[in-house]
Design a protein that fits this description.
Strand content: over 45%
Structural class: mainly beta
Strand order of the largest sheet: 1-2-3-4
Bound molecules: beta-D-galactopyranose
Order of helices and strands: HHEEEEEEEEEEEEEEEEHEEEEEEE
Shape: globular
Radius of gyration: 21 Å
Number of strands: 23
Helix content: under 10%
Length: about 325
Amino acid sequence: MKFFKSFYFFSLLFLFNLPAIAQKASKQKVINPSAVWPDNQGNHIQAHGGGIIKLAEGYYWFGEYRAKDNDPKFRYVGCYFSKDLINWKFLKKIQFADPEQLGEGWVLERPKVYYNEKTKKFVMYMHLDSKKYLYARVGVAVSDKADGDYTFVKSFRPLGMESRDIGQFIDDDGSAYLVFESRPSKGFYIAKLSDDYLDVAEETSFIRAPLEGGAIVHYKGLYYAIGSALTSWSPNPNKFAYAKSLAGPWSEFVDIAPPATNTYSSQSTMMIKVQGSKDTTVIFMADQWKPRAQWDSRYLWMPLEIGDGKLKLPKPQPWTLNIKTGKAKIQDN
Ligand code: GAL
């Protein structure tokens, strides 16, 4: 009897499109730091050193697409979409063909995409460099669609400065900023973008701390900045400072995690604030680089313990996020 019942049930499932139901059933419920993170096609997400923007329809994640089978002449930016920040749909592998003729080993890193309400354009910033990292500029490319073909516009040195790692920050009032590390200045800049986002309009803040992977969040009346030391692909103890105004003055930088863990073997990339009906969660988004197998580099995302000028990255473990209420819950072991 039992057999017939389940047979009947499964035939019904088939009738009502089993594949769709099966896919729904395989939806991911947790964010699992350091694990392979499959997209909707089952491939590990390729959006390293990434950036996320929230639009009315949901979240877009852009980052370095470093698949093993990439054509070495090109560099690629992965574009993914999600409504819950956990399940990501692959949209596009955006291709760039050495726009500044930097030659073999040219570098396109840490792409960040902004949506400009006035021009209705998606504007991508990228760190452009030569193999030896001597070019130190940002590149700008535009598209009419998040997952469109991006047209390269130009490259430049923001505020006339050398620029390597870049970060993205959009304040609660919608103002858009580029964060960039500049070696000669021994620090990093937060610079406001021009109205059309195609340029950097002014220096909002210079933070004299030799840090890269700059990430900023505005949370309960304070600005927090996280950065990592300049140790290439190797992790180091990332630090944070806070300020009442984006322009500073900024507090001293202190560790976000026990220094011996080297930020649990990760490097800062961004912070995302998820404001829900009940709670606000700030997610620390970091990369766990594998320099000899970049396609397999992992992501470490964790909800931060943050507030009143304090910030702590908890020990990584699986957690859930309710995008509607804004509540994050670390799973008990
Ligand atoms: C890191 C940086 C990465 C990449 C790497 C190259 O410090 O954060 O984005 O540029 O160096 O060595």
